Each structure stands twice: as structure tokens, then as C-alpha cells.
Amino acid sequence: DAGVTQSPTHLIKTRGQQVTLRCSPISGHKSVSWYQQVLGQGPQFIFQYYEKEERGRGNFPDRFSARQFPNYSSELNVNALLLGDSALYLCASSLAGQGNYEQYFGPGTRLTVT
Amino acid sequence: AQTVTQSQPEMSVQEAETVTLSCTYDTSESDYYLFWYKQPPSRQMILVIRQEAYKQQNATENRFSVNFQKAAKSFSLKISDSQLGDAAMYFCAYRSAYVGFNKFYFGSGTKLNVKP
């Protein structure tokens, strides 16, 4: 079975632009979480979606939004990009939205804002 | 809010030897899960081992084992018989058992170098 996939792999954007990142979970997984990993730091939780509803949100501004589709894939949108948004964005999927279920991470999308 | 601290930014170990990575966390909760994730240069995070706080027995997965000290809020990872493929960033992570969603708190990571 394929693991978590993310697209694109790399992305370069200019300050003020908008970006959309995509994630496809492992088949059968209904929960998708998004993390931001700034260089030299650990991942920080942005969102979790389960059954197409937002279940949790981290301490990120409203410029960050996400959604989950009927096939459980997900998009992360970031508006009005800032230099500080440059990071590796990780998607993780799990079977359910809570409980002791393992999270599987994708390879990430490297976003560079210039 | 919970915090996870990894005080060793970088460590080195000789191939075939043993190394221990440290992690401490701060929480007022009594039930939670702890994890060690490995992130090789290829970037994909892989779960190495996990521990449920209500279990007193330390988790073990082949060459990887943990020393879980709940009272001290310490969760160290021991890698035995280190191999070149163990070289990676290692992240310690915390997840509450009470919150109804999968919010993980990660430490800042420890870069492990393995010398041949």
C-alpha cells in the first residue's frame, strides 16, 4: 500500500502570495493532520481534520486554513505569505481522529518564501 | 501547555556501540503517550517506539528501548548496536490521552551521527 503522499515536493513563492499544499492519506485512514517544521526545530501542529471536519487547531494565524475532501485527502492553504512561513510542511494520517492510533507522516513539502 | 525538551542538539556514536538520547517533558496530565520519531535526511518521519504512560514496563523494539521515568517526566531512548542507518534526527513527542484529537508536541530534536 502507498504511504502518505504530498505534493508538490518543493515550492518557491513570493511574499504576499498564496499557496496550496496537498496531502493524500494512507488508504483507509480518515484523519489528516498538518505540521509546520521550521529549519532546526521540531514540527508544530497546525490542524487536524477527521471525517471532513476540523477537530483541532494549533496556534497559527487565520492566514492558515485547510479542508478535507470526501476521499479524505486534504489541502492546506496559506494566504499573504511571510518570510517566516518558509518551512517543511508535513502531513500525517491516522485511522481515527483520536485514541492510540499511530500517525504516519508524508515526506513533506518544502516551502520557500522570498 | 505541554512542552517537550531535548537538551542534546547533536550526538555521535561509534558503529556497534550504544547511545542514549534524552527527553524531558512538562505536563500536569496523568495519562498520555510518548513517542520517538526518526527523521532521516530524506525527511520522512518514521515512528521508532512509543510508550503509554499508564504502562510501567518500558517499551522495547529490537535494538531500541526506552527508559520511562514518569515521576521525573523523563523519556530517554537507548539505541544498542548502533548502525550507520541509524544516523538521523530523532524527535521526542508527547500526545495527551484526554484531548479529542491528534495533537503532538515535539521536541527540537537530536541529530545522531554514527561513525564507522
Overview of the molecule:
The complex is a heterodimer of chains A (114) and B (116). By secondary structure, chain A is mainly β. In chain A, 0% of the residues lie in helices and 50% in strands. Chain A has no helices and eleven strands. Chain A has strands at residues 5-7, 10-13, 19-24, 31-37, 44-50, 53-57, 64-68, 74-78, 87-94, 104-105, 109-113. In chain A, the strands form two sheets. In chain A, strands 2, 4, 5, 6, 9, 10 and 11 form a seven-stranded mixed beta sheet that branches. In chain A, strands 1-3-8-7 form a four-stranded antiparallel beta sheet, with no helix packed on it. Chain A is globular and about 35 Å long. Chain A starts with a strand and ends with a strand. The mean pLDDT of chain A is 93. Chain B has no helices and twelve strands. In chain B, strands 2, 5, 6, 10, 11 and 12 form a six-stranded mixed beta sheet that branches. In chain B, strands 3-9-8-7 form a four-stranded antiparallel beta sheet, with no helix packed on it. In chain B, strands 1-4 form a two-stranded antiparallel sheet. The mean pLDDT of chain B is 93. With 116 residues, chain B is mainly beta. The radius of gyration of chain B is 14 Å and the shape is globular. The interface between A and B is medium-sized, with 30 and 26 residues.
Instruction: Give the percentage of residues in beta strands of chain B.
Output: over 45%
Terminal CA distance of chain A reads: 37 Å
- CA-based shape of chain A: globular
What series of H and E elements makes up the topology of chain B? EEEEEEEEEEEE
Major pleated sheet of chain B: 6 strands, mixed
Rg value of chain B: 14 Å
Mean pLDDT of chain A: 93
Task: Flag low-confidence runs of chain B.
Answer: none
Rg estimate of chain A, integer Å: 13 Å
Number of helices of chain A: 0
* Number of strand segments of chain B: 12
Main sheet attributes: strand count, strand direction, barrel closure of chain A: 7 strands, mixed
How much helix is in the residues of chain A?
under 10%
Helix fraction bin of chain B: under 10%
Structural class of chain B: mainly beta
Identify low-pLDDT runs of chain A: none
Arithmetic mean pLDDT of chain B:
93
